[in-house]
Write a structure and sequence with these properties.
Layout (H helix, E strand, L loop, with lengths): L31 H23 L7 H9 L3 H16 L3 H22 L2 H9 L7 H17 L5 H31 L2 E3 L10 H14 L14 E3 L16 H12 L10 H17 L5 H5 L8 H26 L11 H13 L12 H17 L2 E4 L1 H4 L8 E6 L5 E10 L9 E6 L10 E8 L12 H18 L20 H6 L6 H7 L13 H8 L4 H19 L6 H6 L1 H11 L17 H4 L9 H18 L5 H12 L7 H9 L6 H6 L8
Parallel strand pairs: 5-7
Antiparallel strand pairs: 1-2, 3-4, 4-5, 6-7
Length: 694
């Protein structure tokens, strides 16, 4: 194949691969205009490369068709992750607008390749005799990808599919832009310091006064403690502030601001979400499925719609019963427990019943120490990884306070780079996530560059960043994804790391959470930020005893969001009109019919702010967390049976699972690791859903 010549102008910062270690993108060297030019040029170059593949007079082979397609698009492979990183982590108005402009172009680019009948004909003609290992897997996955993409449609069908894909891409970007704006706009401004009783000094300084200043509500030179204070909103329905605020009226105001996102006003998202639901159904029907969920499961581990519904149905009743018992335990007299009071009452109950005050533990969970002596230490003990901070590389990132570590193995060989972007900012999407900007690939000669992004409130100047227990858990969780990326091995980028079926990708990250409470680690990383004292004697035991407290409520919150996602995406031609005409009514009916008391336990996300589903690619996929938890809970039992945090255990988990990615079927990898299929009982035990005495 002849080399495609770059046509970016001389001196363009994206003209050549990044010279930084492991190809770390030089974000500081590019403008939004550079990225837009690079994206469009990258698409043009890949189309030219693919055209050369499709017009070749040679008979189709694995090498000249499947492998060549996999390795095409070098410029786009470099630029697209940079752009998506900036849109998610520093999504200025200009970048959000550019994302809305480029999203349909990217969708059209992908369609132009995958829906070209010449490509499906060539791939179908490739002789798979003699292919083995990753080559055979890549051919299998390429054929599946083409089938799911709609390559078998006729010309009119392909044109209609391209139209649907373009509009869906535009709407998804618009939903995200509106949600980010509405989340910022609905933050609660407080001018009376007395209303903030219960919040700790660091909360006031870091998350409130600083946030108010950044949002333009407070002069930067105002005296400390002068206010006003801005209570910003996280992506979840239930906000972290609710566990500490003593003012019930303010708790309700914060809660109602949270659940109101996207429902009305300048940044309303429900209209966009309903259009997305209808278009996804149109696309599914065009591709031969009765619903979007049925279509999505063609590339998942879950075997059927009925299998997913069976798992959710088996959990909802027992979890709701547990949530009701939780509510009865915290109720004050005959007054019903309401959602904005639950976090406050639950925290008070935990303090009394288990002598555990999760909020008061924050001084023991200082971000840097949790990261280096907890998260990194676990990765060293299990996988032999070493982490050396590269302050010289931080200046190449897009914001101050983003940190970079070079990762090596126990023999000193380069593994990749880890980048931590931990602090919240107004331009960052809510939540926490991991993503690669460079994939592991032997064919490309690349090692991974992996980002972990969180929304921890930035501390006041000169103060350490303290984590809640939930935030510390999230850090361990996201680093499980990071390990999946860093330890990836394989020939082809589309098969390595986290490139596994959507409903199994959370499995390694959920396993990694268990090391948060590993006694040998906890004794080192959980030290008081000022005194250096260990956690008070018995804290770990009390935390473990308290684990099941509130589990029913947390499980129902999650299941509520999962059921909403599933309900929107199992709509059919006969049911979609009524549902989308009244989204609020549909939400309530779905949850009530499933046995959830929505006045007691609202879903973790509502349709108006369900970014996973309407802004990202989790549509009909939010069940993945609980589906993957079946594997996770079963795997954790294996670790406990075999001695826990040992190098030998880590070696087995890495060799059979983390390093494999999608180079072989994930469930086959699990069987190779565990010696059998996963069992459900460990999950039910963890969630407190086994019958008494079982």
């Amino acid at each position: 194949m002849t080399q495609i010549t770059h046509r970016l102008p001389a001196g363009h910062p994206l003209l050549s691969p990044s010279p930084l270690p492991h190809g770390l993108p030089d974000f500081a060297a590019v403008s939004d205009a550079d990225l837009a030019t690079g994206m469009r040029q990258g698409m043009a170059e890949q189309r030219a490369e693919v055209e050369e593949i499709l017009s070749s007079p040679e008979a189709p082979t694995f090498e000249n068709t499947v492998r060549a397609l996999e390795l095409s698009g070098a410029l786009l492979r470099r630029v697209a992750p940079m752009f998506s990183t900036l849109v998610g982590s520093d999504g200025t108005d200009a970048r959000q607008a550019l994302a809305e402009e480029l999203s349909p172009e990217l969708a059209a680019h992908e369609d132009a390749i995958l829906l070209d009948p010449r490509l499906s004909a060539r791939v179908a003609a490739v002789d798979d005799a003699g292919l083995a290992g990753e080559d055979a897997r890549l051919l299998e996955r390429t054929r599946t990808r083409l089938e799911i993409a709609g390559a078998g449609l006729d010309e009119a069908g392909r044109a209609e599919l391209a139209r649907l894909n373009g509009e869906l891409a535009t709407l998804s970007a618009a939903y995200t832009r509106r949600l980010v704006a509405d989340t910022a706009a609905r933050a609660v401004l407080v001018t009376d310091r007395e209303r903030l009783a219960g919040l700790r000094a660091d909360d006031l300084a870091a998350a409130a006064e600083r946030a108010a200043a950044e949002a333009g509500h407070r002069r930067a030179d105002a005296a400390e403690g002068a206010g006003p204070w801005l209570l910003t909103l996280s992506l979840f329905t239930s906000q972290p502030w609710l566990a500490d605020l003593e003012d019930a009226g303010l708790r309700r105001e914060v809660f109602e601001a949270s659940v109101g996102r996207g429902s009305s006003g300048e940044h309303e998202t429900l209209t966009t979400a309903m259009r997305i639901v209808r278009l996804r159904l149109e696309k599914a029907r065009l591709l031969g499925a009765a619903s979007w969920a049925e279509h999505a499961l063609r590339d998942r581990a879950a075997p059927s719609v009925a299998a997913v519904e069976g798992l959710l149905g088996s959990l909802t009743g027992p979890a709701m019963a547990n949530a009701r018992r939780d509510a009865e335990a915290v109720a004050e007299g005959d007054a019903p427990v309401v959602p904005w009071d639950w976090p406050f009452l639950s925290a008070a109950h935990a303090r009394e019943a288990f002598d555990v005050d999760a909020g008061a533990l924050r001084p023991w969970f200082e971000l840097d120490r949790v990261l280096t002596r907890g998260v990194f230490a676990a990765a060293t003990a299990l996988y032999g990884l070493r982490f050396a901070e590269r302050e010289d590389l931080a200046g190449h990132l897009y914001r101050p306070a983003i940190r970079v570590w070079e990762v090596t193995d126990e023999d000193g060989r380069g593994v990749g780079l880890f980048v931590g972007d931990f602090f919240a900012r107004p331009t960052k999407s809510g939540g926490a996530w991991m993503h690669n900007v460079v994939d592991a690939s032997a064919a490309l000669g690349t090692r991974p560059v992996v980002f972990c992004t969180m929304n921890v409130p930035a501390p006041a100047e000169g103060r350490p960043a303290l984590l809640t227990l939930d935030e510390a858990t999230t850090l361990f969780h996201e680093f499980g994804h990071v390990l999946h990326g860093l330890l990836a091995e394989g020939e082809y980028p589309s098969l390595t790391g986290t490139a596994v079926p959507r409903d199994t990708v959370e499995f390694p990250s959920q396993v990694n959470e268990v090391w948060l409470r590993e006694p040998s680690l906890l004794a080192d990383y959980a030290r008081h930020v000022e005194t250096g004292a260990e956690l008070p004697t018995g804290t770990l035991e009390r935390l473990e005893a308290a684990d099941l407290w509130g589990e029913g409520y947390r499980t129902v919150e999650y299941l509520g969001a999962t059921l909403l996602d599933w309900a929107w995406h199992t709509l059919t031609e006969d049911t979609v009109d009524a549902a989308t005409a009244d989204p609020a009514g549909f939400e309530r009916r779905v949850l009530t019919e499933a046995g959830i008391d929505v006045d007691l336990v609202p879903p973790r996300y509502g349709t108006g702010y369900f970014k996973h589903v309407f802004g990202n690619d989790y549509a009909a996929g939010y069940y993945s967390y609980i589906w993957a938890e079946v594997l996770d809970a079963d795997a954790v039992e294996w670790f406990r049976e075999h001695g826990g945090l040992t190098r030998e255990n880590g070696r087995r988990f890495a060799e059979e699972l983390l390093s494999r990615g999608d180079t072989r079927d994930v469930l086959e990898s699990y069987r190779a690791f565990r010696g059998r299929d996963a069992e459900l009982e460990p999950l039910l035990r963890r969630r407190g859903l086994l019958p008494e005495g079982a």
